[in-house]
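FAQ

Q: What does a record look like?
A: Structure on top, sequence underneath. For example:
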């Protein structure tokens, strides 16, 4: 539901329209989106809607996205929710990209009774800072049912992490913790790892785009060496080198739970990649490995290690190697290994593939009946018309690729041309009773 529609109905005093809006509240979902002029009228309209919603439930999900939230706005929302719905509880609260600051965090603390049963508190892309995190740490102990906390992009720093993790130890139901882009160093990483040691329900940690470095990675490695719960770890863009990769690889030889390791945009180099691929056959749980944009320049030694890893792994399903450097002979060998493996998702966009490599890619596509998701570089393919036409024919008619569901292209220089061809391909695939391909034309470096 948009803020605009609710405001118009309320200001125009149209009871029938307001009633129609209220009828949509059977599931108690209210979301204000993309309103740059959120005002008191909007909050009054929200109170009107809450009071008249045709539901007997007192459990609500409320979200404010891209709506600048002043302290007054949040105080008004708290007043309306608590006054017009006595005993009402917010099961999920989303306030993202809305300029929420430390004073706003204090208003959330004042809502502790309404948040007592909150399962998801999502506050990404705001302005909390370390002071806001400190204030929220006084709210967290009251959230006994909290399962997911997202404070990404709030500049909370190591001090904010210290305050939060100390309080979060009381949230024994917590499963997801999102702390990307928060100026966290190895000091904060140690606190996060210690938290995960104490909360055995925590299965998902995202600390992407911080500065934890090799030292902080060692703390996560220690966690993985003894933790039987964590399934997803995002360490992307954290200035981690071959040294940090070695810490993790050693831990993963004994870890039996981690399924997803995100390592993109770290300066691992070929040595770091080789260390991680050596670990893969030993791991029985890892299903996804993301090494995109890791300054990997493939050589004969690394090629051999990758091929051996793909040959002997029993768990790996998604391998992401885009934005690295592979020559044609090396990528041909890797593609052949992919074709013989259990991998169903493969990303190799923007990796310097030449004509020979593209021919090997075409052979892979024609033969492979497992691949469900594939990421390629549009400029590499379109510049080679023979290969591009061969790819289109393969997607349309070949026995291979019949399970392909998602096709990603990096960059949008050829977006219109690719979209048109994929539309034609999907028409023919439908006639042959094959899955429709979902096309994403994206920037693979993001």
């Amino acid at each position: 539901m948009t803020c605009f529609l609710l405001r118009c109905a309320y200001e125009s005093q149209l009871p029938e329209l307001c009633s129609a809006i209220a009828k949509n509240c059977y599931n108690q979902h209210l979301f204000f989106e993309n309103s740059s002029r959120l005002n008191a009228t909007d909050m009054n309209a929200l109170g009107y809607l809450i009071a008249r919603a045709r539901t007997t439930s007192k459990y609500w999900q409320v979200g404010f996205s891209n709506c600048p939230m002043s302290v007054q706005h949040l105080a008004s929302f708290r007043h309306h929710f608590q006054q017009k719905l006595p005993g009402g509880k917010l099961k999920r609260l989303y306030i993202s990209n809305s300029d929420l600051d430390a004073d706003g965090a204090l208003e959330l603390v004042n809502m502790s009774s309404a948040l007592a049963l909150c399962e998801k508190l999502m506050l990404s892309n705001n302005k909390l800072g370390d002071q806001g995190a400190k204030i929220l740490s006084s709210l967290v102990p009251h959230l006994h049912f909290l399962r997911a906390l997202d404070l990404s992009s709030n500049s909370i720093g190591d001090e904010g992490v210290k305050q939060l993790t100390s309080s979060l130890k009381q949230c024994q139901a917590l499963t997801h913790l999102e702390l990307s882009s928060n100026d966290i160093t190895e000091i904060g990483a140690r606190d996060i790892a210690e938290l995960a040691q104490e909360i055995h329900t925590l299965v998902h940690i995202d600390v992407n785009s911080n500065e934890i470095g090799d030292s902080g990675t060692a703390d996560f490695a220690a966690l993985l060496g003894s933790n039987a719960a964590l399934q997803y770890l995002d360490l992307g863009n954290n200035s981690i080198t071959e040294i940090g990769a070695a810490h993790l690889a050693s831990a993963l030889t004994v870890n039996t739970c981690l399924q997803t390791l995100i390592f993109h945009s770290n300066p691992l180099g070929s040595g770091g990649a080789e260390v991680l691929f050596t670990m893969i056959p030993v791991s029985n749980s890892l299903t996804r490995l993301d090494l995109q944009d890791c300054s990997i320049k493939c050589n004969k030694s690394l090629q051999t290690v990758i091929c051996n890893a793909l040959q002997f792994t029993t768990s790996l399903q998604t391998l992401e190697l885009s934005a690295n450097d592979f020559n044609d002979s090396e990528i041909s060998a890797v593609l052949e290994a992919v074709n013989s493996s259990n991998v169903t998702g493969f990303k190799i966009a923007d990796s310097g593939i030449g004509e020979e490599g593209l021919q090997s890619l075409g052979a892979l596509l024609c033969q492979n009946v497992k691949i469900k998701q594939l990421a390629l570089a549009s400029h590499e393919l379109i510049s080679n018309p023979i290969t591009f036409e061969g790819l289109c024919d393969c997607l349309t008619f070949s026995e291979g690729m019949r399970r392909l569901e998602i096709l990603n292209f990096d960059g949008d220089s050829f977006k219109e041309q690719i979209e048109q061809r994929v539309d034609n391909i999907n028409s023919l695939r439908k006639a042959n009773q094959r899955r429709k391909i979902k096309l994403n034309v994206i920037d693979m470096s993001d």
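Q: Is there anything notable about this one?
A: The two ends are 30 Å apart (CA to CA).
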